[in-house]
């Protein structure tokens, strides 16, 4: 008579160990390198099956380089994406022109133009990374209602100076208008003031 093998009993783990495992998995689930590695493992099948831990190690190296200020890989990635989007645009454009029906033509062309727009935005992002725009920060006088914004030097209470009108003065302080007030002349004596008019 043959002896039956007893099934291997499952080892019971303590609730504390289960809790630690759950915490470790939660930490991994929110790590950027783990998230990206999971996506790359699924979409990177044309390059073969990848070990997710190796992918995570490569991604951590890339993240460390970016944190240190080396963004060459990011620049290369953007340029590669722009080239890929250009290929998508060309493919969809060629397929659109070969469509018989207007609806199909419109669908392919709309998708082609979306890829073209994404390509342009990717190149614009790359350009902004290579040549950051110069920003001049100035105070904006934006008012929503009866509000006054004074950009001058704030005056202290009691020290408000009366400003002089310097329009008629030269740099050295002498007045530009040097004429004295002239006396009235009696040249046009026949001209009289207008009399009161009778009105109804």
Give structural notes:
Among the domains are: 19-70, no CATH class; 72-133. Helices cover 50% and strands 0% of the residues. It has five helices and no strands. The relative contact order is 0.04.
What is the compact description of this entry?
The chain is an all-alpha fold and 200 residues long. Among the domains are: 19-70, no CATH class; 72-133.
The radius of gyration over CA amounts to: 41 Å
Task: Please give the count of helices.
Answer: 5
Any idea what the shape is?
A: elongated
Give the strand content. Answer: under 5%
Q: Order of helices and strands, N to C? A: HHHHH
Descriptive key words:
single chain; 200 residues; mainly alpha
List the helices and strands and how they pair.
Layout: H1 15-30, H2 32-43, H3 52-67, H4 72-97, H5 102-130
